[in-house]
Amino acid sequence: MGNTFGQLFRVTTWGESHGGGVGAVVDGCPPRLALTEADIQPELDRRRPGQSSITTPRKEADAVQILSGTFEGKTLGTPISLVVKNEDQRSEAYTEMAAKFRPSHADYTYQAKYGIRAWPGGGRTSARETIGRVAAGAIAKKLLRERWGVEILACVECVQHLHCHVDVDKLTLAQIEANIIRCPDPVVAEKMIALIEQVRAQGDSVGGVIVGVARGVPVGWGDPVFDRLEADLGKAMLSLPATKGFEIGSGFGGTLLTGTHHNDAFRNVDGQVRTTTNRSGGVQGGISNGETIYFRVAFKPTATVFHEQETVDVNLQNTTLKPRGRHDPCVLPRAVPMVEAMTALVLADHALRHEAQCGGRAEVES
Amino acid sequence: MGNTFGQLFRVTTWGESHGGGVGAVVDGCPPRLALTEADIQPELDRRRPGQSSITTPRKEADAVQILSGTFEGKTLGTPISLVVKNEDQRSEAYTEMAAKFRPSHADYTYQAKYGIRAWPGGGRTSARETIGRVAAGAIAKKLLRERWGVEILACVECVQHLHCHVDVDKLTLAQIEANIIRCPDPVVAEKMIALIEQVRAQGDSVGGVIVGVARGVPVGWGDPVFDRLEADLGKAMLSLPATKGFEIGSGFGGTLLTGTHHNDAFRNVDGQVRTTTNRSGGVQGGISNGETIYFRVAFKPTATVFHEQETVDVNLQNTTLKPRGRHDPCVLPRAVPMVEAMTALVLADHALRHEAQCGGRAEVES
Amino acid sequence: MGNTFGQLFRVTTWGESHGGGVGAVVDGCPPRLALTEADIQPELDRRRPGQSSITTPRKEADAVQILSGTFEGKTLGTPISLVVKNEDQRSEAYTEMAAKFRPSHADYTYQAKYGIRAWPGGGRTSARETIGRVAAGAIAKKLLRERWGVEILACVECVQHLHCHVDVDKLTLAQIEANIIRCPDPVVAEKMIALIEQVRAQGDSVGGVIVGVARGVPVGWGDPVFDRLEADLGKAMLSLPATKGFEIGSGFGGTLLTGTHHNDAFRNVDGQVRTTTNRSGGVQGGISNGETIYFRVAFKPTATVFHEQETVDVNLQNTTLKPRGRHDPCVLPRAVPMVEAMTALVLADHALRHEAQCGGRAEVES
Amino acid sequence: MGNTFGQLFRVTTWGESHGGGVGAVVDGCPPRLALTEADIQPELDRRRPGQSSITTPRKEADAVQILSGTFEGKTLGTPISLVVKNEDQRSEAYTEMAAKFRPSHADYTYQAKYGIRAWPGGGRTSARETIGRVAAGAIAKKLLRERWGVEILACVECVQHLHCHVDVDKLTLAQIEANIIRCPDPVVAEKMIALIEQVRAQGDSVGGVIVGVARGVPVGWGDPVFDRLEADLGKAMLSLPATKGFEIGSGFGGTLLTGTHHNDAFRNVDGQVRTTTNRSGGVQGGISNGETIYFRVAFKPTATVFHEQETVDVNLQNTTLKPRGRHDPCVLPRAVPMVEAMTALVLADHALRHEAQCGGRAEVES
Lengths: 366, 366, 366, 366
Known about the structure:
Four copies of one chain form a homotetramer. The first copy, chain A, contains nine helices and 18 strands. By secondary structure, the first copy, chain A, is of the alpha+beta class. The first copy, chain A, has a single domain (about 5-360), classed as Chorismate synthase AroC (Chorismate synthase, AroC fold). In chain A, helix 1 (about 35-45) crosses helix 4 and helix 7 (about 230-240) runs antiparallel to helix 9. The longest helix of chain A is centred in the last third of the chain and has 27 residues, at about 330-360. Chains in contact: A-B, A-C, A-D, B-C, B-D, C-D. At the A-B interface, strand 1, helix 3, helix 7, strand 11 and helix 8 of A face strand 1, helix 3, helix 7, strand 11 and helix 8 of B.
């Protein structure tokens, strides 16, 4: 029952790596939003394997079909069913993994929890599971952009020790898509790509940090006390495969400041309440304050590396495993659209929740 | 509608700082658990203001009453209503804040979202709101301990730049409660207390990091893909006031390792699957793997500092504010039981979810 | 976990008959609704025991307190905690019931499900449980009336074989409250009262039918396919104690007509789409159509009768039981405000859901 | 957001009559249940149009595909995606309905609510929507039968004024499937079929009553106070198209008895608590008591009749409409598997909820 996200803009994903396909059902999308596959496919293309020299060489078109919920190019207000067929399946690479648990992968915990596991391709633990999220997120993104003018972006800030400076107020999609690692600084991007290629050549992997950004979010989204905006963003990010950490605004670094230096002063700027700094990350008390929302997400190095490692087999005997198959040496470039998608799902849900309880009210009356 | 946490072990909290009281309703607690106020009060005492020289001097007994859900000292399986009356209320300290928004506090966003706000004591944004969580968490903690042998602890790891080493496998409650900052290293604890006293004397505030630990969690808890254990833990922590970040296991630091160094090897130890390291933090693929679960939570410095700061008033005019009243110079010692409580709420919920779907199965059959 | 009703206007009730009290938490109520205890108490007075010669003689003031969620007489948008203390408790009347299961009561099933039961006063199965619903429903009723002009009423249509005609378009509160049985036809009301007094004298009980009415509901409320308006109304009614049936519009009787006679023709009346008949009961395809919503609810005769009956004891031995204590010979007059309350909770929830998904749109553009 | 049913055994349906297909996602099904399309298809065949002379002549194979959630013929504990393609689509029959609202159909309310509607085939309001329910229900049925020995059946009791006696304790699937109307009394069945054929020849339609039965349900399922078993059954049935009423056990008829005659006496029968009568319908206080659960559901006559009727068009002008196309003159025979499916979904959900909260406990200890 953990496969549904959101209360009002509600997404249920389904699908294993090597079954009939993967997909999602979006329930609660407002009616009369213009929507065709062409709104969704570009996001899936950003997520697709085989898109560049630093991603897995698997080739899958990941072509999305909308099976329901639209009529004459507009949403109906009924559930939108999104399906992507599975294609390039090679179970043989997984034969050994059928019998042995990959270290730091979900093989063992799935087997222990469910007493059964679809080992070809990793089953539900495959990154293919995120296709449904990205497809649903594309709809949420469009809704947010068209109805509230919200813009959502993500980019790679760090690959292992390499990092760049991200200006969250000026970041553009063009900057992000200008290189295959999706880092807005072209100089650092070169180094990151070189590092990943070197690591891949060694059969190893690296992780890093993605920055997520939402601009133009009106004041008032977020639902304390438990469904604070940062809590739901944190959950969304930590539900993505390979994530180990989340921080919003000043984050862990903010703990080094005193309150007087950390606080964001309010100022009236052209009749609007603004903050002079943005250590809050666009959220105060769990509610958006009108400033840019930004956060960082830590992705661990890919667990599947091509070195021999100690592990146990399904009979719990000690053994070693040297994985084969096709895997990303670094998940970050393909994770960028996932971070954007999950951000969009959180914000679309909270936008509708705010409409419901507060009638869309979003400003202090003066 | 954001005031309920959990699917099966479900907690709804209510209450403003200066209203009739605060409390929680716990729905879904299994029947026949021995439970009286004496099981709950000690946790509230750890959370209470005025407990030491480094917390706010407000004096509130925070005595909890169980109004329903138990009979002859045992739970009935019906909702448990927990109430704590409000006592030491001094609205006058808040008079200025009625008209001016405190920087980096939730005053402005609440006013903007709801068009109304209970300014005395901060209303629902007061730390008093967490009383209901801590009371409910005490029940979850007892259930987890008695039924599954799970032990939950939290402690202060860092106050600003001061930090100690926490051994998550050996940490004890006695170590934590041995000093008023709740840091298990007595030497660092002394320095932390001195720092907080110095900061308080300056009318300023500091933040830091709390480590949360759950030991004895069986294999199999967690509900991918969205309700991964770390995702729900992250949400739980980020729903606490003043939090800015969450990381599990190796966290952000883990992004500096390559996959071969980051992976946790599996070994059969006395017939059980164990990992030789625990960079995963006890969770793989969103499901507990039987190792110690541990994570870190960043708390920002308290927003209410006694310096004059720039802000706007409720008419959106620029002004300055120098807050008065009684506030914690550092929320961490009182946040320790909050982190434990939220951890317990997440785990109790997932324990019941696992019973429901998998019938309590938690081991690979060999 | 079955003690919460609603998705957006969300009510959680708690409380046993003989514990510390009963109450409810309302989460999701929009902010800035004028609200004090005086808005709620009159509904509780209509539900109160001892209000007339044909209800149980128990005397309880059932005075409600609002502990949170309002400030200066207006709702805050935060959870509203409602509490009513328990007062007139006489456990001794229940001593025998501690050991024996009352036929057609919930004693046995609660004991079997939970392995424990609060036998004094029937615990959670007592009609006192509905206090929280009626209190929460009073808030929903006010919201519906003030924001959408919706009027909600219920009345007794049948007591056993005695029934009156109810004109759902003209029914008034004054008619309903004109007599103690709450039947709008004063002549039939006299007979109903006489019947109940006669049945009570015999130590027996009777049931009957309540008609529920909602007028002024705009077109568009209801959320197919599962959360159709009539499905949620049906669930709401069947969640009330002692209910055995629900029908909307033509109901079971409508199965005797052919389609041509059953259909409601549409007509444009002064620019509005209206139906010339209303066999649909104000709902088509699960969505309100702007006509009066009306439905019927069957209440069985009170299970606690003062005759000796065959039953088993808690050791599963055959025995007989002749209940004592104070009970209603007919639940209907006190159930009228319960039906109204549950109707209000369903409609308030769907009103907010419609705002969220469809932005309050409620008319065909022409 | 109204397209999901259940808390733990959770079904989301999607699909319009004339889009790419219809289907469902089942989340929360326990792992290791043997499951292939062959377990589901027979139920869809019972629901399929064109199955007999008294159903709509549309021809659709309604062949189900399982796209995810199983591996080597067993459930994985992950979401099960079920898809049925749309085939025999003839939009031209609906051209007139594009411009005019069918009386007592959902055309108008959908248009008013959403501001858009998929008129071909009725879109989401088509009976095709129930394919997803029946497919998901087949899984729930199998789970209930294999794990708890629960048997679920439904049959036609009444068509208009014709009715038969149903013995809910002895009813068999063979009796039900012995004739095309699915009435267990072969003599009455003949008359019902003749009536439907006559009505169809007149271009008219009829409704009736279906009895639903669940045998072998253990004591203890149901979750008061709001999620009583009969409340969730009632909601489930009233969420089916064309339903107008629901009653459990003695239902509306039970209001004619006094309490002494209505009560079900308890007796110890071979060490088990049984009732000597079953006016409760297998549920007391919202919780199953171990007796046969039975209830009745009223279905109105099909709204689409081939007579000229008064209505309005999409410009709100008065007009008349004489529908064309292929429709069932009586929905009952095809609704029988729908009633069974929804019963199974309710019970599977409550079975898992009981496991979660009460650890499967289902008997009084003696």
